[in-house]
Amino acid sequence: MSDEKNRAVAEAILPLVGGAANIRSVAHCMTRLRLGLADRSLVDTEALRALPAVLGTVEDDTYQIVLGPAAVAGVTAQLNRLLESPGAPAGAGGTAGAARAGERERPGPAPTAEELAARGERIRTRARVRNATPVKLALRRIANIFVPLIPALIGCGIVAGLSGALANLGWAPALVTALGPVSAGFMSLIAVFVGYNTAKEFGGTPVLGGAVAAVIVYAGVAKVEAFGHHLTPGQGGVVGALGAALLAVYLERWTRRLVPAALDVLVTPTVTVLLGGLAALFGLMFVAGEISTAIGHGATWLLAHGGLLAGLVLGGLFLPLVMLGLHQALIPIHTTLIQQQGSTVLLPILAMAGAGQVGCAVAVYLRLRHNASLRATIRSALPAGLLGVGEPLVYGVTLPLGRPFVTACVGGAAGGAFVGVAGQLGGAVGSTAIGPSGWALFPLLAGPHGLLAAAAVYGGGLLTGYLVGFLATYFFGFTRETLAEYDSAGGADGSPEADRAAAERVGDGPVR
Q: Do the beta carbons of residue 509 and residue 379 sit within 8 Å?
């Protein structure tokens, strides 16, 4: 998307989230613009969803607007420029949005896509309130540490894959040698970035968190002996870095409370780095190293001895884990596996959950032939679903419908079992980065038998997930009563013209 189009999207979004004065922070992950807002009641969610560039919204600790991987970085940059410029647009408020939503209401016995999306939003809101436990809030904070690292992980992962492909082909040996540092440099220092983000997330001075975590990757630690063994640079990895930086945050707070203000600038950083660094050397590195080793051995053993069961369970339960917020606990595990083994074998299995959603959505599309608005929503969301952006399908289609969400999980379980069995038979497939899924994961695949073999296994898993998700939904996704309820025409005749009008009413943009 060009800068002009990105700016147009940003200009459209800004007044609908309450204007510049309502925005406290702006960030983005792989697919979502994440906004910290002062007052969420000023957000016009219906109007936001009506924007053609917006694939959906998610209310969490931040207000998240799903834009997709191709647009989110550009729109975020343009939004930041708008916020920095004088005279940024003021918010439109919620009343106008309510009026627009009222204009889009359409009577009829069949729930429209708008009504189903609202139902999905209510389910999501109830789940968020119900699951705002200390453990899940802590997992969100851990996710906030690692999510900003994903673009670098993806870029370095693709470069590593390119380097491996060239090496296997015997092409451009000089370039392969140069690509080694390019792909591995970030991973060799990832502990520093984790430490920086940890301190930032928990209210400490970011650079002090990075300084303490840097001890872990410093080459000179090889001369230090702890617990009867010489340390290894990088021992403990991201787990150790997270723990060291978190300790640094508390040391900084403790020191700042005790030290006179006149001495704070000298004493607080010194005590934080000194005590935090020594704790990392003579405790955290060893303990975190044992944890990281156990994670690597556990993942390898699980796939080698229980691939079928592991794939079935992980692929089938990943979407419910996402709804509960528990999937965030997997981010440090993925990162640890990438750091240790060069790829995470868990992500390709978990990505099968999205395949089940896609197959399910196609079945819903065919079964509800007369629900024009919902079919328009599926057409709009399906390309994003194929690329691994599943929120529009989950919260706009399968979850509010109920039973199709379960049959989508069945498809994910089948795809996960396929990938798991391949791993058990020696054809394990991993991902060199986290973030993408669906078709977008192909460039990041790796395996013991090369990229083509890994792609074949992963592609087979996707096809299995699509097929089983489709069949399970087509034959078991609706009772006779619910099919009659959702498939009644409600004033739409299922023609392309009716589909086009329904799409415009629910805000999915023009149907091409």
A: no
**Active-site annotation holder among 29, 156, 360, 409:** 29
Is residue 151 packed enough to be buried (19+ CB in 10 Å), middle (13-18) or exposed (0-12)? middle
* Alpha carbon separation from 475 to 93, 179, 357, 404 (Å, rounded): 44, 50, 15, 10
| Residues 308, 413: Cα–Cα separation, whole Å | 10
Distance, CA of 75 to CA of 70 (rounded, Å): 10
Q: How many CA atoms lie within 13 A of 387 on its CB side?
A: 13
CB burial string 295-325: b at 16+ within 10 A, e below: bbeebbebbeeebbebbbbbbbbbbebbbbb
- Identity of residue 404: P
Structure tokens that stand for 116 in this block: 């189903």
**Strand (E) or helix (H) holding 59:** strand 56-59
Task: Determine the Cα–Cα distance for residues 73 and 70; give it in Å rounded to an integer.
Answer: 8
Q: In angstroms, rounded to a whole number, what is the distance separating the alpha carbons of residues 437 and 134?
A: 29
CB 477 within 8 A of CB 487: no
Mind listing the domains of the chain with CATH numbers? 1-90 (3.30.1360.60), 144-299 (no CATH), 342-506 (no CATH)
- pLDDT, tens digit (0-9, with 9 covering 90-100), for 425-463: 988 899 988 878 899 899 889 888 888 899 999 999 999
> Residue 71 — very low, low, confident or very high, per pLDDT cuts 50/70/90?
confident
pLDDT in tens, 264-298: 889 999 999 999 999 999 999 989 988 988 988 88
Q: Which residues contact 357 (CB under 8 A, 6 or more apart)?
A: 319, 385, 390, 393, 394, 398, 408, 411, 412, 469
Distance from chain centroid for Cα 330: 11
| 29 tagged catalytic | yes
Sequence length of the chain is 512
Using only the alpha carbons of the chain, give its radius of gyration. 25
Check residue 130 and give its pLDDT. 57
